[in-house]
């Protein structure tokens, strides 16, 4: 099966998704043992969906930032994140 070269571009949470799949496989598909991975993946999706919505509302294209720009966007968010 050919690798999907656009996967990382289209899914900013690809790493978290793969880690949750790996956890399931390692733990014989016992979902209870992978809750932390699910929470991390869901937090990631929530964050990037908010970024996408904010960029769309502000007319910034592409709505999902390019892969090299994502780390700086996450870092900026961490500076302004309410405590």
UniProtKB/TrEMBL annotation:
Species the sequence originates in: Anopheles minimus
Keywords assigned: Disulfide bond, Mitochondrion
Subcellular location: Mitochondrion intermembrane space
Keyword Mitochondrion found: yes
Name recorded for this polypeptide: Coiled-coil-helix-coiled-coil-helix domain-containing protein 7
Family: Belongs to the CHCHD7 family.
Pfam family, one: COX6B
InterPro entries: COX23, COX6B-like, Cys_alpha_HP_mot_SF
One GO location term (cellular component): mitochondrial intermembrane space
GO BP annotations, alphabetical order: mitochondrial respiratory chain complex assembly
Predominant subcellular localization, coarse grouping: mitochondrion
Keyword Iron belongs to the record: no
């Amino acid at each position: 099966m050919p690798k999907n070269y656009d996967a990382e571009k289209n899914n900013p949470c690809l790493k978290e998704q793969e880690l949750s799949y790996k956890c399931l496989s390692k733990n014989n598909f016992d979902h209870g043992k992978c809750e932390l991975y699910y929470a991390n993946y869901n937090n990631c999706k929530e964050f990037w969906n908010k970024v996408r919505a904010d960029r769309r509302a502000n007319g910034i294209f592409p709505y999902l930032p390019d892969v090299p720009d994502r780390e700086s966007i996450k870092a900026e968010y961490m500076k302004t994140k309410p405590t």
